[in-house]
Amino acid sequence: MVWTPAQTRLFLEEARAHRLFALYQLIALRGLRRGEACGLRWNEVDLNGHSLTVNWQLVQLAWQVHEGTPKTDASVRTIPLDTDTVQVLRAHRQQQLQERLAMGEVWVATGFVFTQPDGNRLHPQHVSDQFLWLAYLAGLPPIRLHDLRHGAASLMLAVGVEMKVVQETLGHTSSAFTADTYTSVYPQVATAAAEKTAALLFGKEEQGESGRVVSLRS
Q1: CB contact at 8 A, 24 and 126
Q2: Three-state helix/strand/coil letters over 54-109
Q3: CA dist., res. 30 & res. 80, Å (int)
Q4: Which residues contact 177 (CB under 8 A, 6 or more apart)?
Q5: Which of 55, 144, 198, 208 is deepest in the core (most CB within 10 A)?
Q6: H helices of the chain, where?
Q7: Confidence grade of residue 31 (pLDDT, cut at 50, 70, 90)
Q8: At what angle do helices 145-158 and 189-202 cross, to 10 degrees?
Q9: Confidence label for 190 from pLDDT (cuts 50, 70 and 90)
Protein backbone atom coordinates (compact mmCIF):
# COMPACT_ATOMS: atom_id res chain seq x y z
CA MET A 1 0.00 0.00 0.00
CA VAL A 2 1.16 3.54 -0.71
CA TRP A 3 -0.12 6.93 0.33
CA THR A 4 -1.25 9.57 -2.13
CA PRO A 5 0.91 12.71 -2.40
CA ALA A 6 -1.55 14.58 -0.15
CA GLN A 7 -1.27 11.89 2.51
CA THR A 8 2.53 11.90 2.29
CA ARG A 9 2.54 15.68 2.76
CA LEU A 10 0.35 15.26 5.83
CA PHE A 11 2.76 12.71 7.26
CA LEU A 12 5.77 14.98 6.69
CA GLU A 13 3.95 17.86 8.35
CA GLU A 14 3.33 15.67 11.40
CA ALA A 15 6.93 14.42 11.40
CA ARG A 16 8.56 17.84 10.99
CA ALA A 17 9.19 18.29 14.71
CA HIS A 18 10.60 14.76 15.13
CA ARG A 19 14.38 14.42 15.47
CA LEU A 20 14.41 11.90 12.58
CA PHE A 21 12.35 14.07 10.25
CA ALA A 22 15.23 14.35 7.75
CA LEU A 23 15.45 10.56 7.52
CA TYR A 24 11.75 10.22 6.73
CA GLN A 25 11.91 12.97 4.12
CA LEU A 26 14.85 11.23 2.43
CA ILE A 27 12.86 8.00 2.18
CA ALA A 28 9.67 9.79 1.09
CA LEU A 29 11.33 11.83 -1.67
CA ARG A 30 14.46 9.92 -2.67
CA GLY A 31 13.36 6.36 -1.97
CA LEU A 32 16.20 5.17 0.25
CA ARG A 33 15.75 1.79 1.88
CA ARG A 34 15.50 1.83 5.67
CA GLY A 35 18.91 0.22 6.10
CA GLU A 36 20.51 2.63 3.62
CA ALA A 37 19.17 5.65 5.51
CA CYS A 38 20.30 4.24 8.86
CA GLY A 39 23.74 3.42 7.44
CA LEU A 40 24.34 6.81 5.81
CA ARG A 41 27.43 8.72 7.02
CA TRP A 42 28.18 12.41 6.77
CA ASN A 43 31.27 11.80 4.63
CA GLU A 44 28.91 10.39 1.99
CA VAL A 45 26.72 13.50 1.93
CA ASP A 46 27.63 16.49 -0.25
CA LEU A 47 25.28 19.26 0.78
CA ASN A 48 26.98 21.84 -1.43
CA GLY A 49 26.75 19.48 -4.40
CA HIS A 50 23.17 18.46 -3.55
CA SER A 51 23.86 14.74 -3.53
CA LEU A 52 24.54 11.73 -1.34
CA THR A 53 26.17 8.37 -2.03
CA VAL A 54 24.84 5.06 -0.77
CA ASN A 55 27.75 2.79 0.16
CA TRP A 56 26.54 1.01 3.29
CA GLN A 57 23.45 -0.16 5.07
CA LEU A 58 22.47 -1.35 8.55
CA VAL A 59 20.85 -4.77 8.41
CA GLN A 60 18.65 -6.13 11.17
CA LEU A 61 18.97 -9.90 11.67
CA ALA A 62 16.55 -11.02 14.38
CA TRP A 63 17.24 -8.17 16.82
CA GLN A 64 20.95 -7.78 16.09
CA VAL A 65 22.14 -4.96 13.83
CA HIS A 66 24.98 -5.48 11.36
CA GLU A 67 26.70 -3.10 9.00
CA GLY A 68 27.08 -4.31 5.44
CA THR A 69 27.18 -3.36 1.80
CA PRO A 70 23.96 -2.44 -0.03
CA LYS A 71 21.56 -5.06 -1.34
CA THR A 72 23.04 -5.26 -4.87
CA ASP A 73 25.79 -3.62 -6.93
CA ALA A 74 23.12 -1.33 -8.38
CA SER A 75 22.26 -0.21 -4.86
CA VAL A 76 25.65 1.52 -4.60
CA ARG A 77 24.68 4.81 -6.16
CA THR A 78 24.79 8.60 -5.99
CA ILE A 79 21.41 10.26 -5.49
CA PRO A 80 20.71 13.93 -6.29
CA LEU A 81 18.97 15.98 -3.62
CA ASP A 82 16.42 18.75 -4.00
CA THR A 83 16.99 22.13 -2.35
CA ASP A 84 14.40 21.61 0.39
CA THR A 85 15.91 18.27 1.43
CA VAL A 86 19.38 19.85 1.54
CA GLN A 87 18.02 22.53 3.88
CA VAL A 88 16.39 19.86 6.03
CA LEU A 89 19.70 17.97 6.24
CA ARG A 90 21.55 21.14 7.18
CA ALA A 91 19.07 21.74 9.99
CA HIS A 92 19.45 18.12 11.08
CA ARG A 93 23.23 18.50 11.22
CA GLN A 94 22.88 21.56 13.46
CA GLN A 95 20.50 19.62 15.69
CA GLN A 96 23.03 16.79 15.91
CA LEU A 97 25.81 19.20 16.83
CA GLN A 98 23.65 20.57 19.66
CA GLU A 99 23.05 17.02 20.90
CA ARG A 100 26.79 16.39 20.76
CA LEU A 101 27.50 19.46 22.88
CA ALA A 102 24.81 18.46 25.36
CA MET A 103 26.20 14.92 25.71
CA GLY A 104 29.81 16.04 26.13
CA GLU A 105 32.24 13.18 26.72
CA VAL A 106 29.44 10.63 26.55
CA TRP A 107 28.95 11.35 22.84
CA VAL A 108 29.95 8.48 20.53
CA ALA A 109 31.49 9.73 17.27
CA THR A 110 30.15 7.13 14.83
CA GLY A 111 29.90 9.49 11.86
CA PHE A 112 26.36 8.41 11.03
CA VAL A 113 23.93 11.04 9.75
CA PHE A 114 21.10 9.60 11.81
CA THR A 115 21.91 8.49 15.33
CA GLN A 116 20.57 8.07 18.81
CA PRO A 117 20.85 11.21 20.99
CA ASP A 118 24.25 9.99 22.25
CA GLY A 119 25.67 9.47 18.74
CA ASN A 120 25.31 5.70 18.64
CA ARG A 121 23.85 4.12 15.52
CA LEU A 122 20.11 3.72 15.21
CA HIS A 123 18.28 0.44 15.50
CA PRO A 124 16.29 0.07 12.25
CA GLN A 125 13.24 -1.23 14.12
CA HIS A 126 13.13 1.98 16.17
CA VAL A 127 12.91 3.94 12.92
CA SER A 128 9.97 1.81 11.78
CA ASP A 129 8.22 2.05 15.15
CA GLN A 130 8.51 5.85 15.17
CA PHE A 131 7.18 5.97 11.61
CA LEU A 132 4.08 3.99 12.57
CA TRP A 133 3.49 6.24 15.59
CA LEU A 134 3.77 9.42 13.52
CA ALA A 135 1.41 8.02 10.89
CA TYR A 136 -1.08 7.22 13.65
CA LEU A 137 -0.82 10.74 15.07
CA ALA A 138 -1.45 12.14 11.59
CA GLY A 139 -4.59 10.02 11.27
CA LEU A 140 -3.28 8.22 8.18
CA PRO A 141 -3.99 4.69 6.98
CA PRO A 142 -1.26 2.35 8.27
CA ILE A 143 1.47 1.39 5.80
CA ARG A 144 4.97 -0.01 6.22
CA LEU A 145 8.00 2.27 6.28
CA HIS A 146 9.18 0.44 3.14
CA ASP A 147 5.98 1.58 1.43
CA LEU A 148 7.19 5.16 1.86
CA ARG A 149 9.96 4.16 -0.56
CA HIS A 150 7.34 2.79 -2.94
CA GLY A 151 5.55 6.13 -2.67
CA ALA A 152 8.73 7.97 -3.67
CA ALA A 153 8.89 5.93 -6.86
CA SER A 154 5.24 6.62 -7.55
CA LEU A 155 5.72 10.35 -7.06
CA MET A 156 8.61 10.41 -9.51
CA LEU A 157 6.62 8.53 -12.13
CA ALA A 158 3.56 10.72 -11.57
CA VAL A 159 5.52 13.87 -12.44
CA GLY A 160 7.04 12.29 -15.54
CA VAL A 161 10.52 11.25 -14.38
CA GLU A 162 11.97 8.76 -16.86
CA MET A 163 11.87 5.10 -15.83
CA LYS A 164 15.66 4.78 -16.11
CA VAL A 165 16.15 7.68 -13.70
CA VAL A 166 13.68 6.17 -11.23
CA GLN A 167 15.49 2.84 -11.48
CA GLU A 168 18.89 4.41 -10.76
CA THR A 169 17.53 6.52 -7.91
CA LEU A 170 15.99 3.48 -6.21
CA GLY A 171 19.00 1.25 -6.88
CA HIS A 172 17.14 -1.41 -8.87
CA THR A 173 19.12 -3.75 -11.08
CA SER A 174 16.92 -3.14 -14.14
CA SER A 175 14.37 -0.65 -15.39
CA ALA A 176 12.15 -3.59 -16.37
CA PHE A 177 11.75 -4.50 -12.70
CA THR A 178 10.99 -0.86 -11.86
CA ALA A 179 8.41 -0.64 -14.63
CA ASP A 180 6.74 -3.90 -13.68
CA THR A 181 6.48 -2.86 -10.04
CA TYR A 182 5.42 0.76 -10.25
CA THR A 183 3.68 1.74 -13.48
CA SER A 184 0.24 0.90 -12.10
CA VAL A 185 0.69 2.18 -8.55
CA TYR A 186 -1.61 5.16 -9.01
CA PRO A 187 -4.67 4.60 -11.19
CA GLN A 188 -4.60 8.24 -12.23
CA VAL A 189 -0.97 8.10 -13.45
CA ALA A 190 -2.04 6.27 -16.59
CA THR A 191 -4.45 9.08 -17.54
CA ALA A 192 -2.30 11.99 -16.38
CA ALA A 193 -0.51 12.31 -19.73
CA ALA A 194 -3.83 12.46 -21.57
CA GLU A 195 -5.15 15.12 -19.21
CA LYS A 196 -2.01 17.22 -19.59
CA THR A 197 -2.15 16.93 -23.37
CA ALA A 198 -5.77 18.06 -23.42
CA ALA A 199 -4.98 20.86 -20.97
CA LEU A 200 -2.19 22.11 -23.24
CA LEU A 201 -4.40 22.04 -26.31
CA PHE A 202 -7.68 23.30 -24.84
CA GLY A 203 -6.50 25.24 -21.81
CA LYS A 204 -8.26 22.98 -19.33
CA GLU A 205 -7.16 22.81 -15.72
CA GLU A 206 -5.71 19.50 -14.60
CA GLN A 207 -7.84 17.32 -12.42
CA GLY A 208 -6.89 16.92 -8.74
CA GLU A 209 -5.67 13.68 -7.28
CA SER A 210 -7.96 11.24 -5.51
CA GLY A 211 -7.55 10.72 -1.79
CA ARG A 212 -7.40 6.95 -1.95
CA VAL A 213 -4.67 4.69 -0.71
CA VAL A 214 -3.82 2.27 -3.50
CA SER A 215 -2.01 -1.05 -3.59
CA LEU A 216 1.01 -2.16 -5.61
CA ARG A 217 0.45 -4.64 -8.39
CA SER A 218 3.48 -6.66 -7.36
Answers
A1: no
A2: ECCEEEEECCEEEEECCCCHHHCEEEECCHHHHHHHHHHHHHHHHHHHHHHHHCCC
A3: 8
A4: 167
A5: 55
A6: 5-15, 21-30, 34-38, 83-103, 124-137, 145-158, 163-170, 175-182, 189-202
A7: very high
A8: 30
A9: low
